[in-house]
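Final report, Chapter 2: Outcomes

The project's central promise was a pipeline that accepts a single protein chain and returns its three-dimensional structure in a standardized token representation, suitable for archiving and comparison. That pipeline is now operational. To close this chapter, we reproduce one record exactly as it appears in the project archive, with the input sequence first and the structure output second.
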Amino acid sequence: MANKRNAAIVAALITAAVAAILVWRPTVLINGLQSAGLYASIAIPMGLILGIVHIVNLAHGEFLMVAAYATYMLCAATGMDPFLAMAPVAAVTAAFGFVIYKLTIRQALKSPELNQLILTFGIAISLTQVANLLFTSQTRKLSFDYVSASVDIGDLSFGVYKFVYIGIALLMIAGLKLFLTRTTTGKAALAVGQNPKGAAIVGIDVDKTYGLVFALASALVGMMGAVFITSSSIFPAVGSPFTMKSFCLIAMAGIGNIPGILGASVLLGVSENFLKAFRGTRGWADIVFFVLIITVILGRSIKGKKA
């Protein structure tokens, strides 16, 4: 009873603190939600791979970078809008991810986890270096008028374009839920993720399923790469920070908990923007996710010991 009372008090205090922050700086919530949509949209494909293929893809951010450069080249050459480029770029990254799986990941799955991490880290470094050779370290950007669209509510003015990230994240969650629960391939993927040996016994091609999941996740990253370039400059190392943040969000949500990634992203996005609201603390916002992940892991460890 005492524990429940304490939990209720803590929840009430947190709610009051959030309400006070919103009254003081409503842009903290707005910018935080926009950041959350971006983080979740990038992390969800990584969560899909980790939940089913059971490998931490340290080249995840570099896949985003590849998609962004593919979008840049396509749009610069044809004048195509990045949103129209989502489909062809997704197809390219799906094929790219499938080839990477067949040539490298497939063999690494039989190796210890440390070898898997080293392999995907090596892929990340290789992709970054190739991008450096092809494009140099110069930043590139595509400019579109609709990105600067804003809304004025009283004295409050904020951009609305980045809310598209939240929409994409929600569509990913809904689409993956339908795919995994309503389609034969999706159900097979879930079975493989839960018990690969058992799935193989009942006739499911585990290797083929892994390849399809890797291709699907790569396609989703490709879609995000196409949208990402509309509001961000790109360079060879642009994807690296997103790999770490994506992994931390998955750890916070729990492996296999795709909707939970969005919740964790909201916590991270709002926390980062809350810290940025204070003068002189902008550079410190990047360590927020480390603090959050340490807190979550310690909390789970303590809870596990008590249980």
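Archive annotation: The chain has twelve helices and two strands.
This record, like all others produced under the grant, will remain available to the consortium after the project formally closes.
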